[in-house]
């Protein structure tokens, strides 16, 4: 892999854009979707080897992970969600990611210590979740001001005629030491492309 994508999802938009209803009302927050080893010019690695999350080793992390990395569809299944992310993506992050516990700790570290919390970044840029229409430029400017100018990847989705901001991805180099410009953005032809104007958040 060449780099990592750290993808955060805006809970209300995720619930709106899903065929599966969310069991609990969503919080107006961006929480973690996953940390994914990725390639610029090849398919991203997935399911690199047989593994399962060792649930007995993660007790000390659970309270923090429940807050920053919930399964938005079913909060009783957070551990299952982290397990699926580890099996599909995390295991492929070796040697930067050492094991399952290190994968979870790395996510906590990125969200809290490295301040890659998109909700806070947008808020500092005076963009709050008010259900207002925003321009793509406004959103990008706010995020870049909190990421040393690096370009994020935005994902939007249409819901009852409105376009909602669903996910923001921040990209890091392959050893997770610094943010980089996200290389692989959604094309205008994609259903996930964010238009210039009229993005609801």
In words, what does this structure look like?
This protein has 201 residues and is α+β, with helices and mostly antiparallel strands. The chain contains six helices and seven strands. Strands 1, 2, 3, 4, 5, 6 and 7 form a seven-stranded mixed β-sheet that branches. The longest helix is centred in the middle third of the chain and has 14 residues, at 100-113. InterPro entries: Ribonuclease_T2_eukaryotic, RNase_T2-like, RNase_T2-like_sf, RNase_T2_His_AS_1.
Cα radius of gyration in angstroms? 16 Å
**Treating each run of at least 4 consecutive H or I residues as one helix, how many helices?**
6
CATH fold naming: Ribonuclease Rh, Chain A
Q: What percent strand?
A: 15-25%
So what's the CATH class? Alpha Beta
How would you briefly describe this protein structure?
The protein has six helices and seven strands; from the N terminus they run E-H-E-H-H-H-H-E-H-E-E-E-E.
Which properties best describe this structure?
201 residues, alpha+beta, Ribonuclease Rh, Chain A, 7 strands, 21% strand, globular, RNA binding
């Amino acid at each position: 892999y060449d780099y990592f994508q750290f993808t955060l999802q805006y809970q209300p938009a995720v619930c709106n854009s899903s065929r599966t209803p969310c069991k609990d009302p969503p919080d107006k927050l961006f929480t973690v979707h996953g940390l994914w080893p990725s390639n610029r010019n090849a398919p991203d690695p997935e399911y690199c080897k047989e593994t399962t999350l060792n649930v007995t080793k993660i007790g000390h992390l659970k309270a923090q992970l429940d807050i920053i990395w919930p399964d938005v569809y079913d909060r009783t299944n957070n551990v299952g969600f982290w397990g699926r992310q580890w099996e599909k993506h995390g295991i492929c992050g070796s040697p930067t990611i050492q094991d399952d516990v290190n994968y979870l700790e790395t996510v906590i570290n990125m969200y809290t210590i490295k301040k890659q919390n998109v909700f806070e970044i947008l808020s500092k840029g005076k963009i709050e979740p008010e259900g207002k229409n925003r321009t793509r430029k406004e959103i990008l400017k706010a995020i870049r001001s909190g990421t040393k100018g690096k370009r994020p990847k935005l994902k939007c989705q249409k819901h009852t005629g409105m376009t909602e901001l669903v996910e923001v991805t921040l990209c890091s180099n392959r050893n997770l030491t610094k943010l980089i410009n996200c290389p692989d953005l959604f094309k205008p032809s994609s259903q996930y492309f964010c238009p210039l104007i009229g993005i609801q958040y």
